[in-house]
Amino acid sequence: MMEIRQVGVLGCGIMGSGIAQVVAQKGIPVVAWDVSDEALTRGRNAIGTFLDKEIARGKGTPEGKASTLAAIRWTRDLADLSGADLLIEAVIEDLGVKKDLFARMDAVARKGAILATNTSVLPVTEIAAATKRPEDVLGMHFFNPAQRMKLVELVSGELTAPETVAAAEAFARGMAKETVRVKDAPGFIVNYLFIPYINSALSFYDKGLATREDLDKAIRLGLGYPMGPLELCDLIGLDTHLHATEAIHGENGDPRFVPPTILRRMVRAGRLGKKSGQGFYDYRGKDGAGR
Amino acid sequence: MGTEAGIQVAVLGAGTMGAGIAIVASRAGCETVVLEKDKTRMSEGFDRIGKFYAQSVKKGKMTEGQARAALAKVRMTDVPADCAGAEFVIEAIYEDLELKKDLFAQMNGICRPDAIFASNTSTLSITALAAGSGRHDRTVGMHFCIPAPLMKLVEVTKGLQTSEETFRRTLAFGDRLGQVCVTTQDTPGFILNYFIVAFNNDCIRAYESGLASLEDIDKAVKFGLGYPMGPFELLDIIGLDTHAFVSKVLYEELKETRFSAPSLVKKMIGAGYLGRKTGRGFYTYGAKGMFGAA
Questions:
Q1: Does the predicted TM-score (pTM) go above 0.90?
Q2: Residue in A closest to B258 by C-alpha
Q3: Mutation site, A120, A209, A230, A254, interface B, largest B CB count within 10 A
Q4: What is the mean pLDDT of chain A?
Q5: Partners of residue A253 in chain B, C-beta under 8 Å
Q6: Taking a C-beta distance cutoff of 8 angstroms, is the pair A14, A144 a contact?
């Protein structure tokens, strides 16, 4: 099986920088690409901030931070990814943008390299079709934050070769990730099961069937979930959730993915959750706690 | 009036839920009468209560003295009149509307006028139960989780005719028991079953459609969502027959596809794959534990 000796990461936002950190921490050299110096700097700083927090918690060392950052090369030149064995794309969730980028990745990546997309809602098969090597393309869906969330969903496009999945799986497991294999269907496993549950919780709350505190408390204490649906939606961002559920509904027409009315209303009103200070709860207090 | 030691409670039914609720009540210092007409179930119920207290001592959760005192608060009986002094009567018998209404009607003639009747039902309408109880304003829903002694949550539900005072007293009672109460409307599944039944059915349908393997769906839910258990592990514990029963009730009320149990469930029940209790559900269970997928 192919050994992954160098990884390219495209997009240095939250997910991209997180993935770059995970790989670099395992001692594998990373070439991180983005379109601007500002984006690259933000990515580098995000990793630095994360590692500083770990050091403060006694979980990391300054030496570890230095060697992780040393393993990452930052570039605006896509050609610098030509030596990568695995390229992981984590740019904006826009099909057109991803397809363009994959066509360019196809042109610079070495023969036999694996081209992976971190998309959460877009069709892997169509992204693969933007290249001349769809058999080398798959989805590698990480979760936020990549440094802490162990799961990686390995998504086979229609033409993805078994060897590609096997190599990506071995690589992810080498990063101490838990891997699952899933068909190229909207939402893969996690979002496909999670989003209808959140939508039904939003409608439930909209109907006044419980207070927000009682609903979240019941789910946490009664089902053992880490967070209740409303506080979780606030954390994810109502606009992010709306975008995801609309994207999946657009693909499969499944009524469980129709955005609940309350969701549209709140997003229209600018109530996006924690990031905007107000969602189902109010975060504008001194300590930022939900009220 | 309650004794110095605590409130007087009657639990109707000594099955899994009844015994669990009796533990919660006695542990909180309540004089607890457990009414059970079936002698076998009565002794099994008492055994279960005793074993729980013994385990609690072993695990260092209670001292020997505390466990003995709590167990001493439990009285098993098949004489309904022994419940006459109870301030709270918690019904935990078979999930059948007519049976529950008849039992409440019977107890109505025995119990104090100010006693509150609480039903542990998970699927039936509190309003309907109250209508048959003889004291519609003093009937309320108190839905405990499984296992009651370990799960703090109680769903408290008002029927259409439940009085504010009954509701207020019930919340205070739940508090005295050391439980955490949430208020639900009298709607099918209240909160917990409404969400978990639909979610579990969604997961079964995803598996049926070939989206991913059983193990991968369980893994994805645990590591991607942080839930304590994957859906198929959980269903094997709940029992496929129990899941099918609750699904059926909710679907009949709500007529939403998410609540309808997929055909795989019926097939599994037909084959006797009910879960852990029959040694096989989605997974197979041997003496060495769980292995393989169905």
A1: yes
A2: A256
A3: A209
A4: 96
A5: none
A6: yes
- Distances in Å between the Cα of B182 and the Cα atoms of A205, A221, B18, B148, B218 are 14, 10, 20, 15, 29
- The domain segmentation of chain A, as residue ranges, is 7-183, 191-276
- The shortest C-alpha distance from A72 to chain B (Å) reads 27
**Which of B235, B222, B227 is closest to B290 using CA atoms?**
B235
Instruction: Report yes or no for ipTM above 0.90.
Output: yes
Alpha-carbon Rg for chain B in angstroms: 20
> Which residues in chain B have Cβ-Cβ distances shorter than 8 Å to A182?
211-212, 216, 220
Q: Distance between CA atoms of B24 and B150, rounded to whole angstroms?
A: 9
Residue B213: CB atoms within 10 Å = 14
Q: What architecture is domain A7-183?
A: 3-Layer(aba) Sandwich (3.40)
Show the CA angle centred on residue B16, arms to residues B10 and B21, nearest 5°.
35
CB B60 within 8 A of CB B33: no
Q: Smallest Cβ distance to A210: which of B184, B198, B223?
A: B184
Catalytic residue among A89, A153, A169, A231: A153
User: In the annotation, is A191 catalytic?
Assistant: yes
CATH code that applies to domain A191-276: 1.10.1040.10
Distances (CA, A) of A99 to A8, B155, B201: 17, 49, 35
Q: Give me the amino acid identity at A2.
A: M
- Cβ neighbours, 10 Å, residue B225: 20
CA of B77 to nearest chain A CA: how many angstroms apart? 31
Query: What are the structure tokens assigned to B148, written together?
Result: 């009651």
Question: Min CA distance, B242 vs chain A (Å)?
Answer: 17
What pLDDT digit, counting tens, does each position of A246-290 carry? 999 999 999 999 999 999 999 999 999 999 999 999 999 866 555
pLDDT tens figures, B139-150: 999 999 999 999
Domains and CATH numbers, chain B: 8-184 (3.40.50.720), 192-281 (1.10.1040.10)
Q: Are residues B226 and A226, on separate chains, in Cβ contact within 8 Å? A: yes
Whether A55 contacts A49, CB under 8 Å: no
The three-class DSSP label of residue B141 is strand
Candidate from A149, A196, A210 with C-beta closest to B202: A196
Mutate to test the interface with B, among A220, A223, A251 (most CBs of B within 10 A): A223
Compute φ and ψ for B163, nearest 5 degrees.
-80, 155
